[in-house]
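Field log, afternoon session.

UNIT: design team B
ACTIVITY: writing a sequence onto a fixed backbone
BACKBONE:
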């Protein structure tokens, strides 16, 4: 088993890591895309794009990639904003779509519009 850390200050506080590689799979923790360097109000699509970039980096460290994703779960603060993310999802998963679910949920920070969790072949 391999644990992958992103360096997020929340990992030691909450006792989790960005991803775990085990049993031929890479399991990526729920990841959000708020950019502290970005604009104060970021769209759901912008957050989705940054989130997938962070997930892709974790998967690369695991020896995998978004093209090997078999399952993805999207958690949306407001389900009405999910449609704005579709073009971003097409960019990243269009040729290799995983099984997917979307859930409306209250996220840990109200500024977070989307959280994404991925399971991929390692």
């Amino acid at each position: 088993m391999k644990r992958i850390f992103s360096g997020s200050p929340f990992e030691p506080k909450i006792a989790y890591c960005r991803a775990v590689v085990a049993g031929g799979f890479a399991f990526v923790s729920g990841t959000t895309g708020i950019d502290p360097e970005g604009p104060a109000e970021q769209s759901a699509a912008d957050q989705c794009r940054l989130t997938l970039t962070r997930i892709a980096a974790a998967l690369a460290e695991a020896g995998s990639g978004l093209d090997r994703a078999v399952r993805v779960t999207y958690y949306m603060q407001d389900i009405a904003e999910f449609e704005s993310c579709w073009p971003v999802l097409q960019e990243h998963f269009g040729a290799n779509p995983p099984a997917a679910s979307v859930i409306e949920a209250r996220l840990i920070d109200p500024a977070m519009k989307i959280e994404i969790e991925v399971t991929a072949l390692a």
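LOG NOTE: The chain has a mean pLDDT of 94.
NEXT ACTIVITY: expression trials, pending approval
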